[in-house]
Amino acid sequence: MDKLEETIAGLKYDEQGLIPAVIVDAENKQVLMLAYMNAAALAETIRTGNTHFWSRSRGRLWMKGEASGHTQQVQAVYADCDADTLLIEVIQRKAACHEGYRSCFYRRLGRDGAWEVIAEKVFEPGDVYGKSG
Amino acid sequence: MDKLEETIAGLKYDEQGLIPAVIVDAENKQVLMLAYMNAAALAETIRTGNTHFWSRSRGRLWMKGEASGHTQQVQAVYADCDADTLLIEVIQRKAACHEGYRSCFYRRLGRDGAWEVIAEKVFEPGDVYGKSG
What we know:
Two copies of one chain form a homodimer.
Chain A: H1 3-9, E1 19-25, E2 31-37, H2 39-48, E3 52-55, E4 60-63, E5 72-79, E6 86-92, E7 107-109, E8 115-117, H3 125-129
């Protein structure tokens, strides 16, 4: 096992073999999204320089942007103190969110206790993913 | 049920009733840590204005900083598109990490495949938590 394989194996994965990865815009430090990696997704992310995740709903490895073209080019990978969370700085093409926003965190809790949208869409999902979603 | 209770109940929690919360420094946008909330922790966070989490290892609700004094004063709460992740901007007293660093993400993956510490400690854990840890 080389050093990188050892480092990947040394992280703490949950009972499903997953570790959360916080994805941050390398340029302005905005948090773009959170998604889950398994060891294979992290290895592929490092090998290719593009983020890969494990889709819990689809049960498969996917490259971010494989459908939309909105890929994420990895600039740096960080681990937290407990080695159970990753932070990855990326150059984000276009937008991270499939709803059309730059960041998935486009809703803020208002004083009335309801979510309010605080960002502008940068693309229309129907134009990118087709009418079937 | 009032609007806030409805909003909290409307989030997607995992099978253990938890939702990950990414904690960000409101001043410089640095990601400080990731921890887990249940509905009660989120309600208490909003009610008191200080972050509260569910400790998976200790099986109880805790206020960040209850031992160290390094509390987090909430400035804004965001939800992501899937309503299964929170992002919370805080004013962090002293430091977020129990290892003595401002952020828990103080290790970056190096070209040699090993983690390297890229931050300076801002306190000595032994001074804050006592010799027993």
